[in-house]
Sequence to fold (262 residues):
Amino acid sequence: MTALDIQRYGPVARVYLNRPEVRNAFNETLIAELSVAFTQFAHDTTLRAIVLGGHGKAFCAGADLGWMRAMAGFDWDRNRADAQALADMLWAVYRCPVPVVGRIHGDCYAGGVGLAAVCDVLVAAEGANFCLSEARLGLLPGTISPYVIRAMGEQAARRYFVTAERFSAAQAHGFGFVHELCAGDALDARVDEIVAALVANGPMAVRACKALVQDVAGAPITDALRAETARRIADIRASDEGREGVQSFLNKRKPAWLIDGQ
Fold:
């Protein structure tokens, strides 16, 4: 892969957008490589956490100018196929069963906001800036909208979709888009602390918890949903990992997944 720098340290993968000369802006190559990487991660049962960040001065500045020039000449069918590739990539990251920790610094614009929104935990440097700039170009944030609206909330989206204003990391933290805000020189340490918390938990439980939030959020509390959530807790209680976790707690010892991971 040329547009990504993927590093593996035991059960943790670190994925860096690696186009610093264009502030990690999207083009078809970067989108394709992200899709491939996260599709592969989804099938790796040894993986416990993924960190997603960017090399250079920015996380992701949106669309590459050269790519935008090419798109300006596309017909409807080519535009549709191009947009679908981005939609498929975002879905691959969002539905990856492994928790994704977003490491945000510098600029996070347009499609970059969408990529941040599909992460499960967002840690941002205090100097980071966000912008949903599409309307300024006569466009709209179509493919990223399902994830961005869920992540920042409808009220914030109503403003920033239509104004295309920049908003700071502090503002993003204020309306819940960013989970953790820290000084730039503390960014990696805070990300590492969150990764350590993830790796300390039951591997299958973490995956089940991620899926639970995605499947239950916004769903009406029907008889079917109540039955489904009861089934899920029964399944995990009866699993080898669930039994081991409860027994280790009752017997005041470390669970097997921590002992095996040492």
About this structure: Residues 4-198 form a domain with the 2-enoyl-CoA Hydratase; Chain A, domain 1 fold (CATH 3.90.226.10). Residues 133 and 164 are 5 Å apart (CA to CA). The beta strands are 4-9, 12-17, 49-54, 100-104, 107-109, 121-125, 129-131, 166-168, 180-182. The chain has two domains: 4-198, 202-261.
